[in-house]
What we know:
- By secondary structure, the chain is α+β, with helices and mostly antiparallel strands.
- The protein has four helices and six strands.
- The strands form two sheets. The chain has a four-stranded mixed β-sheet, sandwiched between helices. A two-stranded antiparallel ribbon has the order 2-5.
Amino acid sequence: MANINRAIATVASAVLFMAMILLPAQASAQVVIALDDELEKYWIVEKKVAPDYPRMALRRGKMGCVALAYIIQADGTTADHKVLAFYPSDIFDKSAIKAAKQFKYIPSVQNPDKTPALSLNVFTYHVSDDSHGGDERGEEKRKLLHDLCSEAGKKALEPALADADPD
């Protein structure tokens, strides 16, 4: 657990400045921050594309994750993609961005004005071993990777979240 906490702190501090890059885009137009369940209030997923597993990572049996922030634009496409966190290296970044650029959203009933939204998506890369009737430990690792990047990504967004808080 100490290694995970250290990794979260390291990744979050190393990429904290990435969230600051998002703030100018947020100031120039009304953009809501919609993480987790909040996103459904503004946008509904119409199309999500699974990322390709980078060949080198697959050959080496590498697992990892990427926390990727992006703006859902009024036309439902994504833009301004920013990697906020990754583990263990940036080997999966390009694959995650390529997949997210193909995402498509439709506005929810509560969002008739098609207000753009800053969202966070976590991509988890995991090679499963189904040769023994399932891989419970592999699923635990996948969840651990997802949680690692999710927490680090949210940590990197804290300055933007603080600015968006009306209190």
